[in-house]
Fold:
Amino acid sequence: MDLQQLSDAIGNIYDCALEPERWPQALKQVSELCQSPFTFVLAHDVARNRPGRVFQHGGDAEWMMKYCGQYAKINPLHTATWLRPIGEVYTLDDLFTRDEWLGSRFYEEFMQPSGFADLIGLMGLRSGNRAVWFCAARLGEAPSFSSADNQAFQLLSPHVCRTIKISHALDLRTMRSETLETALDALSVGVFLLDSQARILHANRAGEEQVRTGNALRVVNDRFSPVDGAANADFIKALSPGTDSGRQRVANMHSIALPVGDGEGLIATILPVGEGRRSSLMAPWSAKWAVFSQNPMSVPQIPGEAFARLYGLTGGELRVVLAVAPGLGIPEAAELLGLGKETVKKHLQRAFEKTGTKRQAELARLLMASSPPAIQ
Structure:
């Protein structure tokens, strides 16, 4: 191995700590060092069993899309590597017997048709429900990875692990994505984050339930689509260019009816989030619009209502407590609730005084201990 190549590769890997978008360039150098045409960094949400961010060099883009969309959930490498030490290098022979690997559905349906010959990798991060792997693959008739390749990966391992750990701690987009998802999933109102073409980038649990069980809206070609023709026309008009120009942040929020007959249906409130302070909060999804949909006939129980009565919290104080409980900071909670940061601070301070707590983590534990499982 050329020492200058190794040094350059390590330097480029560390550059990825603050700028994850540099991973493809760093992975290109790793490919040259390890004589591997396909290298990648792959994150996975273990709790939801779905892939997270992916960076790759070489390989087929369609292959990775197929993996993320269909086969990530049945990848046996996840469980096989989960308890191995962080940074320990492995190949397929270290993880499975030949019969176990060749007999797996993941291999038969996905890896074999893709022409994979061998894989070498390491787990770079295992933090809570999030795991990140760093891997290289050989295809076709290429030889299996050797002990020399293993040694090369070992040289890279500590630098890769430090980079991923730093990136995990400092990458605010990823952190905001995970905490915001938790906050959105706790809401009883449906929330849909859309791109400029009305494609759904994220839907919370309540929104998914509205699509699955209701007749007011549907998903067509990944797009948010009201079933009623007039409502769909109103929705398209609301998202047309110029709709929100020249208006202020809250003034440009408006609502449309999504009827299904007999006075039933949903009320959808549309809020542009692609510009200004909202855009930073929605950066993980690059969302242009947020749609909040709710059945006006149903009045769900307010989460944390008993907790608020027990400690004498006001409605405003309870909203702030519910926002910060999943881990949001004061700026993010203010953005989510549409309040000023100083207002959030005052509500939070009064909640501390009434509950006898001093920190957000302590307050969150008290709330979870006092709330029904549906809130947790």
About this structure: Residues 303 and 373 are 11 Å apart (CA to CA). DSSP finds 17 helices and twelve strands in the chain. The longest strand covers residues 116-127. The chain has a mean pLDDT of 80.
